[in-house]
Amino acid sequence: MLELRPNCEGCDKDLPSTSSEACICTYECTFCRSCVENLLNNVCPNCGGGFSSRPIRPAKEHRKGISLKNQPASTNRVNTKYTIQEIKEFSNALKNTNPESR
């Protein structure tokens, strides 16, 4: 089950569970759409993969025990350990390779 991290690992913007701006990689690294497009060039600075929109967990319980209320989003904030310069160098090296070919 997705952790639904509460913030962008790049700029620390709040990304609540209902946010349509949250993007994740296959390892669930979480960044806002602005960082993905303008800083990362759709290259995860941790794994080198691409990003997809993070799904929104239903708030309403449509099936017993299955909802945001029963599986709440994480409250643990995560921030990247890389500098902006390191991120730019890494993403520039991979940005012209399609994510499925990285």
TrEMBL record:
Domain of life assignment: Bacteria
Pfam families linked: DUF1272
The protein's name: DUF1272 domain-containing protein
